[in-house]
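Suppose you are handed only these lines of text.
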Amino acid sequence: MEKILKTIRNVPDFPKPGIQFKDITPILHDPQLCREITDAFVEKLGGSRIDAVVGIESRGFLFGILLAQKLNVPFVMVRKSGKLPFTTVGMDYALEYGTARIEIHTDALQPGWNVVLHDDLLATGGTAAAAARLIEMQGAQVAAFTFVVELGFLGGRKNLGEHAGNIISLVNYDGE
Ligand code: AMP
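From them, the structure of the protein bound to adenosine monophosphate can be written out as follows.
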């Protein structure tokens, strides 16, 4: 979607040198564009049965909750370690340097549920793959991944294929 590409702010060398940060905050200034993004996800999901939307902290909460509202299904947060108050199950995953941990409430999903897993941006796919494992540990499955932005040149998609065939992104930076 041309309008998304025009609206995203590219911030060089944030949070560290060599990274070009895709800042989606200008999108949030445009309520019409936010509606169009949410509607585009719904359209691309194509009417398949969805029981919940899971959003990854923290920018995955933004369109995650809008999408869950539009689909009229529960919204579930995947959060960084130590943030969720109730009983959790967690998953460690590798970062460029060191590891990180994400968690989900143990009662958030029902076995057999078809889940949409949402984040603002797909980079290497490490975070989304770890979140997919958390969903699968609850006996649910990832019906589709949704991202506003995909950094295609990083090849993150290949880390998600074992979890779901349907990987939706609205804009793709392929050649950077
Ligand atoms: P990854 O696990 O490598 O796919 O990283 C995905 C997470 O890091 C997402 O939650 C993104 O919000 C964030 N992220 C990674 N790279 C960027 C970038 N260039 N611009 C904005 N966010 C990014």
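What can we learn from it? Residues 19-22, 56, 59, 119-128, 156 surround adenosine monophosphate (CB under 6 Å). Strands lie at 9-12, 20-23, 52-56, 75-80, 88-94, 99-105, 114-122, 141-150, 167-172.
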